[in-house]
Structure formats: structure tokens, C-alpha cells
Amino acid sequence: HSWLFPRCGACVHHGGAGTVASCLHAGTPSIVTPVYLDQHYWAERVEAIGVGLRGPPLASAAAKTLGALLRVCLEDLRSGVGRLHSVALSIGLAVRSEDGVGQAARFVDAVCH
Prior knowledge:
mainly alpha, globular
């Protein structure tokens, strides 16, 4: 993910928490085609915060529908002022600048002492 996603105009995926996090880290918009459980939640969140689109559930996803969603993302990128890409890039920059490991270590240390 860390090599591929930053090179993509958009990522079509199932919406697992790890894949959503990888797209956010990369600053790449998502098209989420949920399969089960929490993936429907992540599809809603991705669209709500403006970093991607909720696609149909994978079981009913047609090539025509996915193609239309990809066109939306790629036209957003080509426009140079696309909202999906600018929000995704902004969140990606914020995520990459965090010291998540250090914050977690400090939290565990504070709880244990």
C-alpha cells in the first residue's frame, strides 16, 4: 500500500479499516465497495469527510458504475482544484506528520505509572 497508493488517482477497495487508513496516509481518494460489517461504516465515513466516494456493495458492483465513480475521481484530479484530492492530500499530510508510535508509547507509559 505504501508504495502503490500514493501513485494512484483513486483506490477502489472493500473498505477495511487498514485499507482506508492506508489511503488516508497516502492522500489518495477512495471508492469503497463494502462487503460486510464495518466496511459499510468506513464507506460512509470516507464520503462524509470528503476523501472519496461510497460505491455499491461489492456483490452488486457493476463495471459501468465503478467506471463512473472512477471518472468522478479522475476528473476531480485533472481539474487541479478537485475537492476529493485536496481534502485527501490535506488529511494525508496531517497523518504523515503525526508521531503515532510516540503518542501511543506516552499514553501507555502514563497509564502504567
